[in-house]
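Re: beginner question about structure tokens

> Can someone show what the tokenized structure looks like for a real chain? I only ever see the sequence side.

Sure, here's an example I had lying around. Input first:
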Amino acid sequence: MNTNYYKNWETCIEFIEKGEIENAENFSLTVASELTVPQDLINKIMAVNLKSYEKKIEEKMDECIQRATSEKAEALCLYYSLDNGWDSTMYICKNYTHENSQWISGSRDWIDIGKARGFSGIYKKDAESAFFADKISSGICILLMLRTTIAFYNVAMKFKNCGLKLCITATESDFVRVL
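And the corresponding structure tokens:
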């Protein structure tokens, strides 16, 4: 992973965590273009309908919140696997710290959410399953991760009074706190 390219994703995280979704989207689109992602591919990524993915997450949220509350957890973190068709799992996390993501891997309880349709093929074919390895893969990853995070954000906002931190990640080293 090229850390210079990944810094662009970290800037997106900052926007999202402040609730500046439009700024995150505008930044990501600009960066993808600067990283020479073809405009037709940018349009294709932005056109993928994630409503069914949002619905899968939303259908499981009550169960996730109930289990988290009964286990006195502090956070829920949605992990999605870029390498496994966006297969998604909600981790029920008893501990939480904004400075360090170790609390996610320490979670021993989770609920399977299912896969998101649409992005896996783009990641495998157009990014060549490369995670921030070069300009093109980095631009593609930023857009795919942004769109996935916004889908989760849309659901999380419906549960903003649940009393838990709501986070999302595709890596083991960081996360986005959407709520």
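Each token stands for a local structural state, so reading them left to right follows the chain. Residues 18 and 150 are 13 Å apart (CA to CA).
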